[in-house]
């Protein structure tokens, strides 16, 4: 029982990082119905930005978080402006391919600059607490706390503010929104910035939790988060969070029971299984597919 | 009746036959060195991959990123045959059988993906093919029989320029006859409008299944040739990057185009060889090329068009302007 509870904490930690990334996928899909395959690599760059930052200036953790989020947000808007916006009215496939290409460009550029995995220095003083036999570290509390905080903030932003209303309007009818005087381009750009900032934050947190940073993270971790977003129903924010925690749980339990090489197999089989029975994910609303 | 502007049927057949003879004799003459032979084989194998993916991504208009997965199945199935089961068999019998079985295994694996494509399409189908690729890759990684993540070593070098050329011609010939047949027009109709196609009496389910199975069969064939060319395969040679490489070829050469597939495979393969000194940066250039291509020429070099000599006669445009 104690073992299970301990694993649950680990799952919560992994799940909250997945959730932050998955939200970025889901937000972009929500407004543009486009899979932003480059998002996983933006997440990866979040880790590298942090590494770069503390290599030059020893900043405290919270400042690093803000700077990294800002940097990835800029990157996100940059990609949107120069790669995706010109293709907004092109066939969907062109946009997917462009996203895939952008992701590979980012990933391989990083690989060209830093071919080896790098260790992440400690940003915070990690203290281990004991709660009735359960071990919880400061790091875990920070990760889960920040993730949940950001998710709540995002939920508030989308559900309660006028910007969130504009976002939801675009996702339901992109053609009408500009006619109503809503600056659709600006809303879409901000959505990308928000998604990328969350991805950057996840990158930093991931780097702190599993302190090895490599260029392949965009695929190994980023694509898992994408799976989480799809499991939850891509385009649905709460679904993304649900899918992320579900996936985090499944992964941690898989590793606890089976050899860790089975992790990907189980994870993608779960995705396939869910797509077969619920083609739009757990919380996704069915849309007319064949139209 | 002679249609003006249409090409003869005999000329391509003669050219293909001469090509086969040349490709069989060429290595023996010593005019081309091993490296050049390797490049020629790679072009042919990539052309098979490219045209077979084009069937699903171009003519049918879906988006599959799982092509490397089918390729992996073909490569492993054939390598098991030549390395584990019949290591001593005469290669002129063993190799064609191995390639065919590699293709068949991959083709069978195409059936479930095809069935899943009945209901899902677009982004979700892309995700399904991605999941398929990942399952195949990590599945193979967990099978100790084929060496797990370390891969299989000591595969005999059976792929020759002539074999690669032969299978390349077969792939192009089958896919050409498929897409220009009445049945194949149904596959193209799915791309244009699935509901309308169904209303016009196209059996979209069977068309999708046929397209997926044919496409994955030839991916398996290419995988088998690939395995016996490199003599070494491991699961990570069939990852998402391999799929992307094939996608680059398809979209660079041109969607729904036989000539485009050939062109795309040739250009990308030779470019990859020329950019070899760049190392990792090579993999920056290719995707960047893909992005630029999508931004400025979304259909690729010859999207939706083809050379006349590759098309059946009734599809070549007669020069009607003159008679008017």
Structural key phrases:
heterodimer, A: 291 residues, mainly alpha, 71% helix, B: 324 residues, ABC transporter involved in vitamin B12 uptake, BtuC, 69% helix
SSE topology sketch:
The complex is a heterodimer of chains A (about 290) and B (about 325).
Chain A: H1 2-32, H2 39-56, H3 61-84, H4 92-113, E1 118-119, E2 128-131, E3 134-137, H5 138-160, H6 162-172, H7 184-209, E4 212-213, H8 217-232, H9 237-257, H10 263-277
Antiparallel strand pairs in A: 1-4, 2-3
Chain B: H1 10-29, H2 34-59, H3 67-85, H4 91-116, H5 123-141, H6 161-179, H7 182-192, H8 194-199, H9 204-230, H10 240-253, H11 258-274, H12 282-296, H13 320-323
Helix pairs in contact in B: 1-6, 2-6, 2-9, 2-10, 2-11, 3-4, 3-5, 3-9, 4-9, 6-9, 7-9, 10-11, 10-12
Q: What does this protein structure show overall?
A:
The complex is a heterodimer of chains A (291) and B (324). Chain A is mostly helical and 291 residues long. Chain A has one domain. Helices cover 71% and strands 4% of the residues of chain A. Chain A is built from ten helices and four strands, in the order ααααβββαααβααα. In chain A, the strands form two sheets. Chain A has a two-stranded antiparallel ribbon. The N and C termini of chain A lie far apart (50 Å). The mean pLDDT of chain A is 86. Chain B starts with 9 loop residues before the first helix and ends with a helix. Chain B has one domain (36-318): ABC transporter involved in vitamin B12 uptake, BtuC (Orthogonal Bundle), CATH 1.10.3470. The longest helix of chain B has 27 residues, at 204-230. Chain B is globular. Chain B has helices at residues 10-29, 34-59, 67-85, 91-116, 123-141, 161-179, 182-192, 194-199, 204-230, 240-253, 258-274, 282-296, 320-323. By secondary structure, chain B is mainly alpha-helical. Chains A and B meet through α4, α8 and α10 of A and α5, α10 and α12 of B.
